[in-house]
Design brief:
Blueprint (H helix, E strand, L loop, with lengths): L3 E6 L5 E5 H7 L1 E4 L6 H12 L4 E6 L7 H5 L2 E4 L5 H14 L3 E4 L5 H16 L9 E5 L2 H4 L9 H17 L5 E7 L7 H4 L4 E4 L5 H11 L7 H4 L5 E6 L3 E9 L24 H6 L19 H8 L17 H14 L8 H14 L9 H12 L9 H8 L5 H15 L7 H8 L4 H13 L4 E4 L4 E6 L4 E2 L3 E2 L1
Parallel strand pairs: 3-8, 3-9, 4-6, 4-7, 5-6, 7-8
Antiparallel strand pairs: 1-2, 1-11, 9-10, 10-11, 12-13, 13-14, 13-15
Helix pairs in contact: 4-5, 5-7, 13-14, 13-15, 15-17, 17-18, 18-19
Protein name: DUF87 domain-containing protein
Organism: Sphingomonas donggukensis
Length: 481
């Protein structure tokens, strides 16, 4: 079974088509400077082959998410998910043969490369029974397969380049047909570009790019100048899925459009320029504060003397003091101890003596808490919980069963943020509650809680962390770790 994808017309008005079955076996490289119509070409190919083959699109700019409304593609905004979740999306897409658009918009370059690597490896590692044919379109491929060093970590560059090389060289056996598009051939890895057997070359102006395009098309160097003269939306095509000799094709119309488009000239506003300064500065210059009210007139001398006259003492009987509330005294004492900056480095046994003295000063002769109970209440106080550990806090303490006493405070700090829906505590706050200045110890403690299934941490692609306490069903909001 084969299917001809109508791409447009040649200069003589004859239709030019791509053999879809041949394309699945031989792969495609699209090249063109910005504004040459490269994205338009990819959109034409995707629209005309939709419904015939699964389509998987890695979209750095989020231009192809509009395919979801017209053709049923599932659009995924990668910035909202973690790398393991992105890999799962890829595996499920292969299993269910779902067309998908992975939008990397909103991520920095390194984040885009890490996300694309996880996604491509998820496609590549699918089990054999899910090796169905699929077009894998990677736009702006020079980002993911650079020819030289990129402004990212070397480990990130190498793993992303390896994933792209796997797609183009070994993906055919797994049913994955790579379609890569780039603005600059000179910036694209030669090992990745060389795996394509079909080419669509659009307008380009730099000599080095024209020379590489001419080599791929089998043209002589003096013929490379014709690539510079191509109109927007016109490409030179060559390959077993297109034609055995180079052909010129004017790409046809498309049904959908990108969320962004090329800039167009629009009329400038017609308001007089004289008001420009008022528009720009309106609301930015703070008004002068109102003048202070005039001072009151001075009092007469006799009124001042009367106010200065001594008041005769009156007999007053002081009431007997009420017995102090132990719960209030304990809460106040814990609050005062926690607010003392020196208490963070003092052991609980020493602080218990300070606690007992504060209780006696408040009118309670014997400390209401023994050293063990005091250590737990102190841990809770460092987490911002000064009352009794009752109700939901008793459930939280039960969820922390099995943790060492010195970790209780850090756990309760996380639990309080999760219960109130606040952002996850930072590593600095957790370390401070733990009684240390080492961020490494704080992270190891979080890892220890995870191994005991007491908490579950999740880090999304923007590096923001949220923490869930499964037993309680509480989760914090995302925040920088």
């Amino acid at each position: 079974m084969t299917f001809a994808v109508d791409m447009g017309l040649d200069p003589a008005g004859r239709p030019i088509a791509i053999d879809l079955e041949e394309l699945l076996a031989t792969r495609l490289l699209v090249q063109g400077n910005s504004g040459s119509g490269k994205s338009h070409l990819l959109r034409r190919l995707l629209e005309r082959s939709a419904g015939q083959v699964q389509q998987i699109i890695v979209d750095p700019e989020g231009d192809f998410v509009t395919l979801s409304d017209a053709y049923g593609h599932v659009a995924i905004e990668a910035v909202e998910y973690s790398l393991p979740e992105i890999a799962k999306f890829a595996a499920r897409a292969r299993e269910h043969r779902t067309s998908i658009v992975l939008s990397l918009e909103g991520l920095e370059m390194e984040g885009q490369m890490r996300c694309a690597t996880a996604f491509l490896m998820g496609l590549f590692d699918a089990p054999r029974e899910h090796w169905f044919p699929a077009l894998v379109v990677v736009d702006e491929a020079q980002i993911f397969a650079p020819s030289g060093g990129a402004e990212v970590a070397e480990e990130v560059r190498r793993t992303t380049l390896s994933a792209m090389a796997n797609l183009m060289s070994r993906g055919r056996k797994r049913g994955l047909a790579g379609i890569i598009a780039t603005q600059r051939l000179a910036k694209l890895s030669k090992n990745v570009a060389a795996e394509a057997s079909n080419f669509l070359m659009g307008r380009t102006f730099l000599d080095i790019d024209m020379a590489r395009a001419a080599d791929l098309l089998g043209m002589e160097r003096r013929q490379a100048e014709s690539i510079r003269d191509l109109q927007r939306g016109t490409f030179l095509g060559l390959g077993p899925a297109i034609a055995r000799r180079p052909v010129t094709v004017k790409i046809g119309a498309v049904d959908t459009s990108a969320r962004s488009s090329s800039p167009k000239l629009v009329p400038l506003p017609t308001q007089p320029v004289a008001n420009g300064e008022q528009w720009l500065l309106d609301g930015l210059i703070a008004p002068l504060p109102p003048a202070p009210p005039p001072p009151p007139p001075p009092l007469p001398v006799d009124a001042v003397l009367r106010e200065m006259a001594p008041v005769p003492p009156t007999e007053f009987e002081f009431p007997a003091p009420d017995a102090p509330d132990p719960d209030v005294v304990v809460s106040d004492a814990l609050r005062a101890i926690v607010e003392d900056p020196e208490s963070a480095t003092r052991p609980a046994a020493v602080l218990h003596q300070d606690f007992a003295v504060r209780c006696r000063m408040a009118g309670i002769r014997r400390a209401p808490l023994d050293p063990t109970a005091f250590a737990r209440r102190l841990a809770a106080a460092r987490a911002g919980i000064f009352g009794k550990l009752e109700g939901e806090w008793a459930e939280a303490m039960a969820a922390a069963q099995g943790l060492p006493d010195d970790m209780i405070g850090a756990f309760l700090l996380i639990a309080r943020a999760a219960r109130e829906g606040e952002a996850a505590p930072s590593d600095e706050a957790i370390a401070r509650t733990y009684g240390t200045s080492s961020l490494g110890r704080a992270r190891r403690m979080i890892g220890y809680m995870e191994t005991r299934d007491i908490i579950v941490t999740r880090i999304d692609l923007s590096g923001r962390r949220s923490i869930t306490i499964p037993r309680l069903g509480w989760s914090t909001a995302s925040a920088e770790a």
